[in-house]
Amino acid sequence: MFSYSIVGAQLYVGDMLFVMISFLVLMWLIKIIAWKPITKMMQNRSDKIANDIDSAKESRTKAAQLAEQRQTELQKTREDANGIINAAKQSGQQQGEKIVEDARNEASNLKSSAEKDIEQQRQEALANSRKDVASLSIEIASKIISKELNADDQKGLVDSYIEGLGKHK
Amino acid sequence: MNGGTPSTFEFLGLTFNVGNMISILIACAVVLGLVYALSRHLTMKPGKGQNVLEYAVDFTNGIVNSSIPGSTSKFLGLWGFSLFMFIIIANLQGLFLHIDVSGVAYVKSPTSDPVVTMTLSLMTMTLAQFLGIRKLGYKGHFANYLKPFVFFLPINLFEEFTNFLTLGLRLFGNILSGEMLLGIIVGMSHGGPVIWIGAFVLELLWTGFSVFIGCIQAYVFVTLSSVYISRKIELED
Q1: Closest CA to B34 of A30, A43, A40, A23
Q2: How far apart are the C-alpha atoms of A79 and A73, rounded to whole Å?
Q3: Buried (b) or exposed (e) across A11-46, using 16+ Cβ within 10 A?
Q4: CA B150 to mean position of chain CA atoms
Q5: What is the largest CA-CA distance in chain B?
Q6: In A72, B77, B79, B204, which residue has its Cα 20 to 30 A from A87's Cα atom?
Q7: Is the pLDDT confidence value at B30 over 90?
Q8: What pLDDT, on a 0 to 100 scale, did the predictor assign at position A147?
């Protein structure tokens, strides 16, 4: 019935229908089996890549911020440490100076007290020797001279004599 | 080979060619099997099969999008992919498997039959008209036939017809000639051992060339179809 000749071959309308229907069915099946999942997957992937790029950019800026922050903190810490060291040095120096000062003071104190002691002892020794010399010389004089010379006069004489010695000195 | 009278039957007043039907069914089955096998275990990080499928999808999407940028490409992507897969498998099918029974081809390339290629071409043209009307409306669509001015109407109408004809016949001619020459070479090989070796080498070369032609023709068919559709969905100046 519907069969004509075209370019040397028979035109079968039934074949045309068959081709159309089978192609449409093929297209529909491909859509169900592969097209939908594969395009969805490709879309998901491109979305994910876009997201990843965005988040990578974000994290890079965050990392840069952190690095900067760390740098400033490091700088600050270094400054603090320097300050602490300087303070410690200074206080150490001060303490050392104070210790030396104290030592010096103590030494001078000791020295002056020692001098005072020495002076006192010298005075005492002087006084003792004066007394001894006086009594000794009185004895000697009384023995040698055995004259009327009382002890008081004699003592006055000796005192003036010894005083004269002290002034000489 | 269209040597003998094809075996046909009539159903509801329509004539069916058994060889074509078998070939088309095989081609469809191969395409479906291939696509099914490649689309298993889809993951975010693609495996081997998924890579092949995605490459094919990207390839046909590239063909379609290069001539039809815009919103219609989503459906047209599926259309281009299906068309490309069907035509390339159909083109190659006859090179691998060709069954003749007493001069009547039962399994061959479906695209070596003009009825099949012209039907595909007709579907493309129908789709182009349909999308044109949907995009521009009846008025805008048919006004395009009167451009650049009214006297171009017969030329434009004739161009539609030649587009339809050349699109189908180009594919048909290329594939038919490939199969026909293969048949002639096979016929030559019955001459003797020396001729057999010569024919073997020749056939090897010609089969390789036919594979190349088959792939190129599938690409050309989809590309031209996209171009024809793109020309229908935009207003001509």
Answers
A1: A30
A2: 10
A3: bbbbbbebbeebbeebbebbbebbbeebbebbeeee
A4: 34
A5: 68
A6: A72
A7: no
A8: 59
The whole domain housing A158 covers 3-168
Contact A49/B at CB under 8 A? no
Give the mean model confidence (pLDDT) for residues B194-214: 84
Indicate the helix (H) or strand (E) that contains B101: strand B99-101
Is the pLDDT at A1 greater than 60? The verdict is no
Give the total number of structural domains in chain A: 1
Report CA-CA distances (Å) from A74 to A64, A77, B20: 15, 5, 82
User: Does the structure show a pLDDT above 80 at B143?
Assistant: no
Number of compact structural domains in chain B: 1
Give the C-alpha distances (Å, rounded to integers) separating A92 from A86, A97, A101. 10, 8, 14
Note the residue count of chain A: 169
Residue B1 lies in a domain: no
Instruction: Please enumerate in sequence order all residues whose Cβ is within 8 A of that of B49, keeping only pairs 6 or more positions apart, or say none.
Output: B37, B38, B39, B40, B41
Cα R_g (chain A), whole angstroms:
63
Identify the three-state secondary structure at position B41: coil
**What is the DSSP track for B165-177?**
HHHHHHHHHHHHH
- The tokens for A65 are 């911020």
Written as six digits, the tokens of A39 are 């395009």
**What are the two backbone dihedrals, phi and then psi, of residue B4, each rounded to the nearest 5 degrees?**
-90, 175
Whether A161 contacts chain B with CB within 8 A: no
Pair A134, A165: CB distance under 8 Å: no
Residue B88 forms part of a structural domain: yes
The answer to whether the Cβ–Cβ distance between A33 and B77 falls below 8 Å is no
CB B54 within 8 A of CB B81: no
- Grouping H, G, I as helix, E, B as strand and the rest as coil, residue A130 is helix
Comparing CB atoms, the residue among A8, A19, A34 nearest residue B120 is A19
For residue B35, tell me if it sits in a domain.
yes
